[in-house]
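Encode chain A's predicted structure.
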Amino acid sequence: MKSSTNSWLRLAEKDLLAAKKLLEDEMLGNLVFFHCQQAIEKILKGILEEHLIPFPKTHSVIKLYVLLPKKQKIKTLIKKH
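Encoded structure for chain A:
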């Protein structure tokens, strides 16, 4: 794994940790969703980075997902089920 990919994944892991901690307070639900979205965004950017696929500066997980290689999209869908 490329070091830049690893960096994206470490950042995503921190967002997930923040989301877990924020779950302890029901008043902070919106921040839980924010950090989950951030984690997904960073994971997608890490995958794109690993495959040497350039991506725009965006926070849209949809725009990033569309850029994934077809093979990677299939793997992602299989893991969901």
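The CA atoms of residues 4 and 65 lie 18 Å apart.
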